[in-house]
Write a structure and sequence with these properties.
The chain is of the alpha+beta class and 233 residues long. It contains 7 helices and 8 strands; from the N terminus they run H-H-E-E-E-H-E-H-E-E-H-E-E-H-H. 37% of the residues lie in helices and 18% in strands. The N and C termini lie far apart (78 Å).
Length: 233
């Protein structure tokens, strides 16, 4: 069965790339979250799953063997990211969306699924904190509340990664601009590392991603219009 695609998929994928998390190794903060989720839910399978264009990828897991696979195999999470509230499937065998899913029909024969969307500050669902079991079950209100908290902590951990990467890039660019810039004494263009001369605006935009607004300072305005009568006090 084909996995559903969110309406904002292009933007969601672009944002996901900003976190630079896909393909990274195990990290204790994420493993702590999945272990706590397993203790809280008393479920045999837990996963922090992220969905890119063609695959699902698991950052941390309990009880599961696979680290990644084709996105169509992650039907549960594909549906979970379509909503802002948890997706709870008590018995997937009786749900037309999942009854023929590979995870249900074949090992590990998932029957129960609870997916808590990982929603970033801009409102994009990057994946889900997943609780899975081989038998039907119900989560208590306290369990749901605890898992929601863990999902928020997961997203906070991901956001910390994104902010740290941005800060590192900014500091690198500041170091670049702190050096001596080769600038033309006449036209004020800057020479880049390849020997090409660029306008200051183009150079700064390329290295800092910063744009410019243009105006005229009072002194230059006075030079441009020297005959304009001065305002009386």
């Amino acid at each position: 069965m084909k996995a559903p695609i969110p309406d904002n998929e292009a933007q969601r994928l672009a944002v996901l790339k900003e976190y630079h998390v896909l393909g990274t190794g195990a990290e204790e903060p994420y493993d702590d979250i999945t272990r706590l989720a397993a203790i809280l839910s008393r479920a045999p399978f837990i996963a922090i799953t992220l969905l890119d264009e063609s695959r699902y990828w698991i950052k941390s897991k309990v009880g599961l063997e696979r680290q990644e696979g084709p996105r169509d195999a992650a039907l549960f999470c594909s549906y979970a990211i379509l909503q802002s509230t948890p997706l709870i499937v008590r018995d997937a065998r009786k749900d037309a969306r999942f009854a023929t899913s590979a995870m249900v029909v074949h090992p590990p024969h998932i029957c129960f699924y609870a997916g808590f969307p990982l929603i970033n500050p801009e409102g994009f669902a990057l994946g889900a904190l997943c609780v899975l079991d081989r038998k039907p079950r119900v989560l208590s209100a306290r369990q749901k509340e605890g898992l929601l908290i863990l999902a928020r902590h997961t997203m906070a951990q991901l956001e910390l990664r994104r902010v740290s990467d941005r800060m590192a890039n900014l500091l690198e660019n500041i170091k670049l601009l702190q050096g001596l810039l080769p600038i033309c004494a006449w036209c004020k263009r800057i020479r880049d590392d390849d020997g090409y001369w660029q306008q200051v605006e183009s150079y700064v935009r390329q290295h800092l991603g910063t744009g410019f607004t243009h105006g005229i300072c009072p002194d230059c305005l006075e030079k441009l219009r020297p005959n304009k009568p001065k305002e009386k006090a």
